Structure formats: C-alpha cells, structure tokens
Amino acid sequence: MAITRPAPTGPDTAHEPPRDTEGPDPAAPTEPAAPTEPAAPTEPAAPAVEAPSATEKASESRSPLILTMLLLTLVLLQGPIRGALDAPVMQSWMTVFVAVLVQALPFLVLGVLLSAAIAVFVPPGFFARALPGRPALAVPVAGMAGALLPGCECASVPVAGALVRRGVTPAAALAFLLSAPAINPIVLTATAVAFPRNPEMVVGRFVASLLVSCVMGWLWQRLGRTDWLRTPRRSHYEGPSKGAAFWNSVRHDVMHAGGFLVLGAMAAATLKAVAPASWLRTAAENPLVAILALAVLAVLLSICSEADAFVAASLTQFSLTAKLAFLVVGPMIDLKLFAMQAGTFGRGFALRFAPATFVLAILGAVLTGAVLL
User: At what angle do helices 200-223 and 170-183 cross, to 10 degrees?
Assistant: First the structure.
C-alpha cells in the first residue's frame, strides 16, 4: 500500500495543469475583470487616424487665404502695375501674347477632344489590322495614318506607345509618332489660318513632315535594335471605363498642351517685344543662321503643334523656309517631347532618336522649302 501511495509533491509541474483546471473557483474572482479588457480607451484611437486629414484640411484652407492675399496685393499695387502695363514694350508684349492665345486656343481644344476620342474609342487592334504585313510598306502607311489623329504631339507619344505594346512594328509606330502631330487636319487648318497669304506653307509642312517621318521609320527598321526600345507600359488613355479614359486623356492633354501654349505665347511675345530688332535682322539676313536659329527655338519653346503656326507667323523677320523648319522640327522633337519619349520608350532610345530626328527635320524642311517656297 505504501508503494501505491503518491508522493505529496505540491510544486510538481506535471500536476499543475490538472490543478488549474480543477480549480476554477479560485480563478473565478479574477475572471470578472475580463469585461474591462474591451475598454473604451481603444476607441479614442480613431481621432488619431483622423489627425492627418485635419492637417490636410488645414493646408487646403490656406490656399484660399493665399489667393485672397495675392488678390489684395494686386489691388494695392494696381497703380504701379498699370504704369508698367502702359509702357510701350508691355503693350506690344500683351498684344502679341493675347493674339497668339486667341488664335490658337480653339484649335487646341478641338484637337484635344478629337485626339482623346480617337485614342479611346477606336478599337485597339484597328491600326495593327490596317497596316501591311511588310515593315517597309507599313512605314509610309503609318505615316499617312497620322492624319487620323487630330491632336498634338502630347497625344501622339502615348498612342505610339500603345501601338508598340499591341504588336505594331516599331518602325511604323515611330513614323506615326512623328507624322501625326504635323499632318493632321487640325494642324494643317491652323497653318492655313496663320498663313492666309502663303498657302504653300501648308503643302510644304505636309510634304516635309511626311518625308522625315518615313525616312526615320525606315532608318529605325534598318539600324534600330530591339534593346534600344523599351516596351511601354499602360498609358493614361486606358482607364476603368471608356468615359473615364476619355476625360483622363482630355485633362492630361489640356494641362500639358495648354500650359506649353501659354509658355510658347509668352516666349514669342517676349522675343517679339524685347529682343532687339537688330539681332533678329542679323539672324534673319543669313539664311543658314535663320534656319538653325528657328530650329533651335522650336526645340526650346516646346509649343503645341496646333499653335506653333501662329507663333511662326508672328516672326515676320524670318524667311518662309526658316519658318518651315520651325514648323517641321517642333512637332517632332522639343524639350517636352524628349522627356515624354524617354519616359515612354526609355532614355537610350530618346538619346539616339532625338538628334537624328532634329538633323533630318532640318534637312527635310530645307529641301522642301527649296522646291515649294
């Protein structure tokens, strides 16, 4: 019997669990404290999450205050501002600036709406099915198809990226990219309005732009390498619905093209009103210098192709060939286009494509101007 008698070892851990399960009574007094665990102190955490939104609201509330302070400053300084605007230089500047904006804005808005509608509502495989199978034939067909996109260069880059992503040969997509901003009906109509006494400028712009686009496409087909061209990702033309994609495209193009239009009009007005006439005459008297000067100016100004004709028409000191170089170079390569091409197709592509396009655009404009102008 002594063998079967268990040893009274209280601190044995092996017997602790049964002793805990058997004795809920001593633990019962502590259990009622459990209802205090879901205490309300956890609820005040919600206001802590709302704190950033409160700061954002405070920052948003500052913008009307800043605008009000700016308006008050303008009201208080209206005397000096009026005196500055009454100066002959500022009057000339405002005249050119407003004239360029008023003439170009309707074409810009119409082009943005039409380009967004075509980019969103035309079926994705339409261009791939419409182009010939041979790349050498697809390049001129794609160049002529640029007339189907009545928009500026801001729209042609993402559309060309979508064509490459959907299987169109890069040579044809690049020809479309270069021709679309320059030979579409909106741009040609704007050119005709800007040069009412020189209808040959419309034909010259069409021929030179199409020629350069096809030559660049054929050069890429023969010399381009696949590792130079990065396959673009989704563009802003693709959205959750066609309506959302359309308005995303419109907002994007209006912000970019409209902003560059204002900057271009300001630059043209400044060049017209501030630059000494002797400098412009010196540059305009030398044909080669005039062509190079306006070609570089087109790159720096980065004006929308639907408005650049009005800026070129305001540069009355320069020859028609120099203005044609301005109109051919601008829609194909400028500062904003270089950034957009680098972002869509890669920096390596833009560093190779932009200089070649610049040189060929000048040569195409000179050859076309020598024949037609």
Answer: 170
Contact 336, 256 (CB under 8 A): yes
What is the spatial distance between Cα 148 and Cα 158, in angstroms, rounded to a whole number? Answer: 15
Identity of the residue numbered 315: L
Tell me how far apart the alpha carbons of residues 154 and 118 are, in angstroms, rounded to a whole number.
Answer: 14
User: Angle of helix 200-223 relative to helix 185-194, nearest 10 degrees?
Assistant: 140
pTM of the model: 0.66
pLDDT in tens, 12-42: 444 444 444 444 444 444 444 444 444 444 4
Q: What is residue 124's DSSP assignment?
A: T
* CA of residue 111 relative to chain centroid, distance: 15
359: how many CB neighbours lie within 10 A of its CB? 14
Q: What ranges in 23-166 are assigned the alpha helix state H?
A: 24-27, 45-76, 78-85, 88-121, 126-130, 135-145, 153-165
* 155 touches 331 (CB < 8 A): no
